[in-house]
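Figure 3 (text version): C-alpha cells given as input.
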C-alpha cells in the first residue's frame, strides 16, 4: 500500500517538518481545537482574491439552499492569469478535501503557497501555510496520505507532500517539471496546465496541459510517493484538455475546451490513455466537469450554461438536452456528497448557483448566493 509513513523515510520526514514549521516559504500556526469530526452538509468556496485569499463556508439546508456560515483567510494571496476574465486560475481542483487528514487544502496562486485547514462541520482552523514548490499553484490532488500540487507558471511543475498529523510535509526529491513552454501575456490562461489528479487506485498522477501541448500527462506513482522522472505524454491534438474527473468504472472523464466536448478515456498500462467516447456540448468554452447524482456536468463559461451527460459502463457518452442556464461566467462546480445538489461557480459576478439534481439528470435552480470578493474566483468543494 502507498499509505504513508514508511520507516525508511523517518529522517526525511523530520527534515521536511523542520522546513514546514520554520522555513520562509510558510509558517505553521497552532490549530484551534475543534475536537473530532469532518464536514457536514456544507459547501466551501475559495475567493482567489488578489488582496487576500479566503475560504467562505456555507451551510446547506435540506432543500439545497446555502446560507453563510463563516469566512476564513488562507494567509495567502489569490492570483490572476494573463487574459483571464471569469476564471482567474483557469483550473479545476484549486480547493480540495483530504479525507485522510481531515484537511481542506487551498492554493494561494499569488503568493506561491498552499493553506491547510482542519475541518469541523462548517468551521475551519488554519493549520499551516507552506510553499508550493513552484510558481502560481492552481490545483491540488489527494490520495491516502499523499498530496500533489500543480504549479502553472513557467515550465509547470508538480510538488509532493506527506500528510502527517494535520500538516503537509514536502517529500524530498518529489518535484517534477512538466517542461512546458513558458507563456506570458493575454494567452497565459489558455496555455497553463489545468488540473492535477490521482487515478482511482493511486498508481498514477495525471496532469492536463490545455493548449500547451494538448497533452494528458501521466506520471507513475512509486510506493513511497515519488513520481516517475518524466510523464507519458498523451497528445490529443486540438482538444485543449482542461479539467477531469473519473466515473464509477474508473474511466477518465475530460472536459475539452478546444472542441467544446466531454471525452472519456481508458487508462492503459504504461501510462497511455485510449479514447472511449467524445460528445460535443454544443456550447462555448466547455472547460470544467463535475459528477453529481450519477451524472456528469460540464461548465460552459462562454455560454453561461451547464451541459449534462450520462456515461455508460463502456465509457460511451450521451448528452442530456437542453443545457441549463446559469449566471454569467460558468466555471468550477461540485456535487454534494449525496448527489442531490450541484453547486456551480459563475465567475463574472462571484456567484454560486444552486441546483437540485433530478432523477433523469435534469437541473432545477433552487437559488444562488453572491460570494464576497470572489469575482473571477475558482475553487469549490461540496459535502
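Below: residues designed for each position.
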Amino acid at each position: 500500500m502507498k499509505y504513508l509513513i514508511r520507516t525508511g523515510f523517518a529522517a526525511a520526514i523530520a527534515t521536511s517538518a523542520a522546513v514546514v514549521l520554520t522555513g520562509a516559504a510558510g509558517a505553521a500556526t497552532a490549530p484551534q481545537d475543534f475536537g473530532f469530526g469532518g464536514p457536514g452538509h456544507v459547501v466551501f468556496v475559495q475567493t482567489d482574491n488578489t488582496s487576500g485569499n479566503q475560504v467562505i463556508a456555507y451551510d446547506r439546508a435540506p432543500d439545497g439552499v446555502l446560507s453563510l456560515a463563516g469566512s476564513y483567510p488562507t494567509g495567502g494571496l489569490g492570483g490572476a492569469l494573463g487574459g483571464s476574465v471569469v476564471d482567474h486560475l483557469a483550473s479545476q481542483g484549486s480547493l480540495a478535501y483530504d479525507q485522510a487528514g481531515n484537511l481542506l487544502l487551498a492554493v494561494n496562486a499569488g503568493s506561491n503557497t498552499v493553506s491547510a485547514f482542519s475541518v469541523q462541520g462548517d468551521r475551519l482552523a488554519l493549520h499551516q501555510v507552506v510553499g508550493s514548490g513552484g510558481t502560481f499553484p492552481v490545483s491540488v490532488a489527494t490520495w491516502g496520505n499523499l498530496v500533489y500540487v500543480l504549479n502553472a507558471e513557467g515550465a509547470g511543475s508538480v510538488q509532493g507532500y506527506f500528510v502527517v498529523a494535520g500538516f503537509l510535509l514536502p517529500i524530498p526529491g518529489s518535484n517534477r517539471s512538466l517542461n512546458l513552454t513558458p507563456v506570458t501575456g493575454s494567452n497565459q490562461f489558455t496555455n497553463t496546465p489545468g488540473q492535477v489528479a490521482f487515478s482511482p487506485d493511486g498508481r498514477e498522477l495525471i496532469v492536463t496541459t490545455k493548449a500547451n501541448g494538448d497533452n494528458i500527462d501521466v506520471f507513475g506513482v512509486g510506493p513511497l510517493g515519488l513520481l516517475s522522472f518524466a510523464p507519458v505524454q498523451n497528445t490529443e491534438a486540438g482538444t485543449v484538455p482542461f479539467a477531469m474527473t473519473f466515473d464509477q468504472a474508473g474511466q477518465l472523464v475530460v472536459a475539452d475546451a478546444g472542441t467544446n466536448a466531454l471525452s472519456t478515456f481508458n487508462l492503459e498500462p504504461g501510462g497511455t490513455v485510449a479514447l472511449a467516447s467524445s460528445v460535443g456540448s454544443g456550447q462555448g468554452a466547455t472547460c470544467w466537469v463535475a459528477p453529481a447524482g450519477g451524472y456528469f456536468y460540464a461548465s460552459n463559461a462562454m455560454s453561461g450554461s451547464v451541459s449534462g451527460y450520462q456515461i455508460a459502463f463502456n465509457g460511451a457518452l450521451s448528452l442530456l438536452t437542453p443545457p441549463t442556464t446559469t449566471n454569467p461566467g460558468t466555471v468550477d462546480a461540485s456535487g454534494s456528497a449525496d448527489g442531490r445538489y450541484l453547486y456551480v461557480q459563475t465567475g463574472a459576478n462571484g456567484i454560486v448557483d444552486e441546483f437540485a439534481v433530478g432523477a433523469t439528470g435534469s437541473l432545477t435552480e433552487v437559488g444562488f448566493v453572491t460570494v464576497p470578493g470572489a469575482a473571477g474566483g475558482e475553487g469549490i468543494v461540496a459535502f
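The chain has one helix and 29 strands.
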